Amino acid sequence: MTSQEIRQKFLDYFKSKDHLIVPSAPIVLKDDPTLMFSNSGMTQFKDFFLGYKTPTAPRIADTQKCLRVSGKHNDLDDVGRDTYHHTMFEMLGNWSFGDYFKKEAIAFAWELLTEVYGIPKENLYVTIFEGDASENLDRDQDAFDFWKSHISEDRIINGNKKDNFWEMGASGPCGPCSEIHIDLRTPEEKAKVSGLELVNNDHPQVVEVWNLVFMEFNRKADGSLEKLPAQHVDTGMGFERLCMALQGKSSNYDTDVFTPLIAKVEELSGKKYTGVLEDEKDIAIRVVVDHIRAVSFAIADGQLPSNGGAGYVIRRILRRGISYSYRFLDMKEPFLYKLVAVLQEQMGTFFPELGKQGKLVTEVIKSEEESFLKTIENGLIRVEKLIQQTIADNQKVLPSEEVFELYDTYGFPDDLTRIIAEEKGLTIDEAGFKAEMEKQKQRSKSDSAQKVYDWVVLEEKPETFVGYDQIESETYITRYRKVENKDGEFYQVVLSSSPFYPEGGGQVGDKGVLENATDSFEVLETKKENGLIVSLINGLPKDAGALFYARVNATERKNSQGNHSVTHLLHEVLREVLGTHVEQKGSYVGPDYLRFDFSHFNKITEEDLALIEDKVNKKIKASIALQEFRSIPIQEALEKGAMALFGEKYGDSVRMIQFGSSKELCGGTHVKNTSEIGHFKITSEGSAAAGIRRIEAISGDKSEEYFSNLEKQIIELSQLLKSKDVVRSIEKLIEENTSLKAEVDALKKEKAKEEIGEWKNAYEQKGNKQLLVKKTSLDAGSVKDIVFQLKREIPASVTIILSDADGKPMITVGVSDDLAADYQAGAIVKDLAKEIQGGGGGNPGFATAGGKNLEGLENAYQKALNI
Predict the structure, then answer these.
(1) Annotation-wise, does 568 bind a ligand?
(2) Pick from 53, 118, 244, 769: most CB atoms within 10 A?
């Protein structure tokens, strides 16, 4: 059975059991403050479990792309070292939202595994929650009783809280779970040791394949448990492990999920994969084929590698793959990007984003490879210098600070530093390095540390966003909670009627005021969390249950929504001018400026930028009225021509924003008419990443301010030049400057001729060689010309010129060709440059050095006389 068939059988089975089959959500989470990535199948359904949203169906099934590389669920360090851990994996799952519970979930799982997939029953074991007295939780007797009707009691194992009480994170939905484990060992191995002894003991052939979670509780911030409004089922089956079991393999990497990728790595590297766990070459191949999946899906879902947040995690995964291939596969040139096509062929049918975004994914990975390989090459030079210095100091241990700087500042892998040091008979200060890593983690934690208390619910009122229609409203606080961070103590509030737009879709959250007759609080930010609009205020009202007046900062909202509307117009114009390959890849919309990232592989010409700006402004001047479809079926919106962005999760009903022919799915706030935008001005265009261009621009008040400042500058220039024709006056100045420069250059040449004649006679005879050490105020260009002439004309000579031109110390050294075997200009200048606190270099015949200490020229002069 192929992996494609295994996946399809799962979905077909649950479809036959009245489950709605839904597509995988994006692997990257954009509107969840608690998670960067989907780390389980239930992530996209969290709001259903908490009761914040109504599920589209009471029974759902899917296969979800998951990534476990950060936080509590982090498998990164295990990848490649065993047969079954992965960064990116698929999780097959079925859910019940207040519909069926333990009995049916257990029956479905058993029927699918044993009858549909045909797994022998004697190879299966199950675990149930044994209870936990500290949490006042009883043994899951119901699960035990239901399992008894399918499997013998001696195959039902009690599991502790760590293994059999599932929690998404420090807080959130949770509950007891029942794991299904499969024993893949040979009959001979089973006869020696019972599978009962190996369940949950990290045996590579006795592995958990499916986890049935019975959601009953919500873990609060204070650690206590409260009952959820309804009971739910959340199951997750590891697709890769299931394929291993059904295809009779002993490793996930031996299944057809990975073998096409491994075959391509073998072809490109010339290395043969043998599947040996301890073999560094095989570990590297497993790392590469695992990591290319994680990185490709993340980029396809809209997350580009970067230096912060989720982008940093993706860059780290990719660099780990590059590092392993560089060290153990001897791959010194980019090659991981060539695996994307294989991945598309394997998974593109079920995950169309891979095909749609294939070119972008390939280009981004290739660019990242080129960049990091340069980092490695430069790092090798730094490591060699560090090793030589350590040896020179008669030490055997590389200092931890320098090793950590290589890792932290320059991105050079610490394990590669370790290997190179060992080859030279050295070690690194392991304890010191770990201490530096811990300091960094603590700094990072302290910067982002925030203590969030539990919600205090005042009364259950419906919570409504009214900000599309008004920026002021009467309201009540329905719930609040305290938040403590490095800036102090604040409160988050949820309002019954909120005009504050929550940060999302690239648009910043609204700020403003929440007040009544006795209290007034500044609204510092507004975000969305678990379906709630949460505003941060700088205090707690005396009477939190009183009537309040919420007012948005009108100026900032006006400018933000003007910039948001502009991004829609800009997106359409970019596709008109550059081509329909252009797709939005990110945006920032604030009151001061807008940033728009889009797929395009070349720098935009000045002519095209001017055309883009002009076309957008024509749409603004055309006074196009907003057409808002506030709740429209997604299929109808797409049929109308609405742009849907890859990497975004849309519901069955969506909001469509239309300005003339521009139609996009969008939840942000917008102007009622394009004429409200005023004027659009592009301020910069450049590369954001491989295959991604970035335009920054302004509109509205900031655009007016820009042209006002420009006008002031022109008036000031006109006054300075004493002419209203500023352009002609500057042209005249340039002409005069060119003429004067020519005169200065002529004078310099004349002065240089005089110096050459004088310097030729100033060489000091030293045996059969000649040395010239001279001070001058000539500029660097003139000195260079003279030195080259002298080293050609004066045989067996070393020429050293010390210049103080423009108040900056400069040392220039020339060595005639016939002394090349005896003297090196680079070595001489490096030694002398120490006196002026500088450095430089060159070739054996010519070298220069600049410095910071002008007074040190005298010391350098005396030192040079003694060469």
Answers:
(1) yes
(2) 244
